[in-house]
Amino acid sequence: MLCGNFVVIKVNDMSTSFESKKVIVAGGSSGVGLATAALLAKEKANVIITGRSAARLADAAKAVPGIQTTALDSNNRQELDAFFQSQGAIDHLVISLSGAKGAGKFSELSLKDLREGFEGKFWPQLNTLQAALPFVNKGGSITIITAISAISKAPGTSGLAAINGALELMVPTIAKEIKPLRINAVSPGVVDTPWWDFLPADAKAGAFREYASQLPVGRIGQPDDVADTILFLMRNGNITGTVVRCDGGLSL
Question: What GO molecular function annotations does the UniProt record carry, in alphabetical order (predicted)?
């Protein structure tokens, strides 16, 4: 449409309304997972979140009215199989499972901690993905959450690079294998989530200030920033096998 000397282009909705769609958010009791569940609930999706902590799930249900919760261990394949069989067909799957181990200077890195890092993120993500595949509608999507440590080359992140890099490298191949079902990854940078709670409050605040001063956007990320990116990928039926960085320019 012409408007004076300008051309106005009407951008159509990507024909993906989430209303009444069934969406599973694995690891949805806090942080990015909970923010994603909240955005989907606002769009009237039928949202079910999972997590290990019944207490955290109860808090999440209070924070986001209308969502459903199920406590399960994503390292337990029997629990996962039973859960997805009970849910039946689903439209979208978001896997926001994460561990807290694996960071540290390589020469001092405990391989026990690194194995626990894989057990906390890599294996439960793959376990969840395999268990869910038979139930995700072919016109739907799967989105996994990795981390910018996969490519950042920052000192002290070699273990995290192994965990997140392994996940990211699998995404394009899986996308070809499961077509036309789509799978993508979102790779956040520094985001204010409970992942950082291993630091004392003052140390965490200092780290956030330092990162913010270095980032081109001038601030650290918030869970909603990442959740917006996840919903974009869920909506856009022409994107698959892709890793999208949502890092405030940290990887530049």
Answer: oxidoreductase activity
Domain span including residue 151: 18-195+223-246
Q: What's the rounded mean pLDDT across residues 27-36?
A: 97
Please state whether 104 falls in left (phi above 0), alpha (psi between -120 and 50) or beta.
Answer: left
Summarised one tens digit per residue, pLDDT across range 47-77 is 999 999 999 999 999 999 999 999 999 999 9
pTM of the predicted structure, to 2 decimals = 0.91
Specify the CATH number for the domain of residue 232. 3.40.50.720
Contacts of 197 (CB under 8 A, 6+ apart): 204
Give the whole-angstrom CA distance, residue 30 versus residue 27.
7
Supply the DSSP symbol for 149.
Answer: G
10 falls within a domain: no
